[in-house]
Structures are given as structure tokens and as C-alpha cells.
């Protein structure tokens, strides 16, 4: 609960469990998945509480949103600067680190719009698992 105090928000059991759930996975879960898992430990928690807590955590900068192909908004507890590979077939979101992407210089068309705080790259494609599955089960 120390993270709540550091951020100036009231520490609650629900917030701690939601945070713990998000930090325990690299799968970038959506709010419904987080709710389902936390509800096993706190049966009285509501989906609304999960949504409000995730929104608060995002505002405080300890999590970020990830939009996966055609799915509901997902959340990322990894606050280290990183990028995402999103599979357009299965929706899997994978973190990756790249100095090449970190050092991208925004073109004038972007800098004319305002000050750039950071650059986040989202690469979309077909993951190796889906490619292998497609090779072994070609569509007829």
C-alpha cells in the first residue's frame, strides 16, 4: 500500500489487489479479466470499482492503456519505457525494448503539433505462434 501513499491516493484493499493483479501478469489484461481474478479474492468488489481504480492509476502514471486489435482496452503495469507488438490474429500484446525506437526523432509534422514528451511504437503483425498454427493448419 506504500505505492498509494507515494502517489497521494487513499490506500484501500481493493486498490492494492487490483494493482497486485496487474503487476502479476505480462498479458496486458482488460478490466473484465482483472475484475474476474480480483473477485476471487474480494467477492464484493464491483466492475465499476475496477474501472475507476484503473483510470486513477492511469492518471497517476503507474499504468498505461494498450489498445489491441478489435478488443476492449487493455492495461499495462510495466512503467519502463518500452514498445508493443500486437498480434492482429490472436490479440496477444508483447512488450519489447529497442534503443532504435527509443531514439526516433519525431518529424517536423509532429513537432509542429506540440512538444513531444515520449515516443511509443506499436507494431502490429502476426505473432510466431499464429504463424506456426497457420502453417500447420492452412485455410482451405
TrEMBL record:
Binding locations of Zn(2+): 87, 90, 127, 130
Which residues are Fe cation-binding?
81
Cofactors that this protein relies on: Mn(2+); Fe(2+); Zn(2+)
Biological processes, Gene Ontology terms: negative regulation of DNA-templated transcription; regulation of secondary metabolite biosynthetic process
Keyword Iron attached? yes
Q: Name one Pfam family in it.
A: FUR
CDD domains referenced in this protein's UniProt entry, alphabetically:
Fur_like
Q: How is the cofactor bound?
A: Binds 1 Mn(2+) or Fe(2+) ion per subunit.
Q: Which GO terms describe its molecular function?
A: DNA-binding transcription factor activity; transcription cis-regulatory region binding; zinc ion binding
Keyword annotations of the record:
DNA-binding, Iron, Metal-binding, Repressor, Transcription, Transcription regulation, Zinc
Organism's domain of life?
Answer: Bacteria
Family per UniProt? Answer: Belongs to the Fur family.
Q: What is this protein called?
A: Uncharacterized protein
Amino acid at each position: 500500500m506504500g505505492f498509494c501513499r507515494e502517489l497521494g491516493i487513499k490506500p484501500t484493499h481493493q486498490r492494492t489487489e487490483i494493482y497486485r493483479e496487474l503487476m502479476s501478469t505480462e498479458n496486458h489484461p482488460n478490466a473484465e479479466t482483472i475484475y474476474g481474478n480480483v473477485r476471487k479474492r474480494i467477492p464484493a468488489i464491483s466492475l465499476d470499482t475496477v474501472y475507476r481504480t484503473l483510470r486513477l492509476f492511469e492518471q497517476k502514471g503507474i499504468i498505461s492503456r494498450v489498445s489491441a486489435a478489435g478488443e476492449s482496452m487493455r492495461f499495462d503495469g510495466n512503467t519502463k519505457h518500452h514498445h508493443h507488438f500486437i498480434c492482429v490474429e490472436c490479440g496477444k500484446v508483447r512488450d519489447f525494448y529497442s534503443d532504435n525506437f527509443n531514439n526516433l526523432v519525431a518529424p517536423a509534422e509532429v513537432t509542429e503539433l506540440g512538444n513531444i514528451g515520449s515516443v511509443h511504437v506499436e507494431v502490429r503483425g502476426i505473432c510466431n505462434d499464429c504463424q506456426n498454427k497457420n502453417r500447420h493448419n492452412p485455410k482451405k
